[in-house]
Amino acid sequence: MIALDEREGDNRPEDLEKIGKYALELGVELNDDARPEAAAAVGMWLFDGSIKKLPGGYDPGELSPNSPVRELKSFPQDLVLVGRSTILVKGLSSRLDLPVSLASEWAPIARKVLNRNNKTSVNIKDDENRVRFGEVWGTLKLWGAGRANYVAKKLPGPFRSKLAAIVLKSQERRARRKVTKRS
User: Fold this and answer.
1) For the chain, what is the domain count?
2) What is residue 72's three-state secondary structure?
3) Residues 106-151: tens digit of each pLDDT
4) Phi and psi at residue 29, in whole multiples of 5°?
5) 39: closest CA among 23, 60, 58?
6) 16-41, pLDDT tens digit by residue?
7) Range of the domain at 144
């Protein structure tokens, strides 16, 4: 994302080499006879919908006979959902005539994550960048409450009523304990 966002030109060899290298590091494998620009073209095609012409003369349309998709030998399973999502976003933005570069949108987040990871690995005592157990616990509690709410809504009426009664009694007990502790 960062390499795509920081590129100085769509046909600049240094930028294309960097973008292509990172695309291959994601696990993308190209055909043996693929052009040298194919890896960069795949990365740009996947994450930058604002490009009208891809490097190496590739077309941005995935159904085009000259699409960089035709150069793919294999695509990593871990990226399939990301790939489908980016194609949907690009399709919508194209239909609405609003060119969107996902790389430009996601690059600030990527920079923040990379900067945070670098700081925590270099300076462990930097409290601002450390993940605290309380934060993780709070996140898990929120997630658990959301899941419980979802499951409760799916239960049949009689079970939902019993569950609501149990939850209400539990909340009443907690409230009584708080009052007792304050006294």
Assistant:
1) 2
2) strand
3) 888 888 878 866 654 433 344 555 667 777 787 788 788 788 888 8
4) -115, 135
5) 23
6) 899 889 888 888 899 999 888 999 98
7) 133-182
Return the sign of the alpha-carbon dihedral for residues 133, 112, 117, 3.
positive
Residue 125 in tokens: 């005592």
Using DSSP's 3-state secondary structure scheme, residue 60 falls into coil
**The pair of three-digit structure tokens given for residue 60, joined into one six-digit string:** 């941005």
Regarding whether 158 and 104 lie in a shared domain, the answer is no
What are the beta bridge partners of residue 72?
30
**Cβ-Cβ contacts under 8 Å for 47 (sequence gap 6 or more):** 1, 4, 86, 101, 102, 103, 106
72-74/29-30 β-pairing: antiparallel
- H-type helices in the chain, by residue range? 2-6, 13-25, 38-47, 80-95, 102-122, 133-154, 157-182
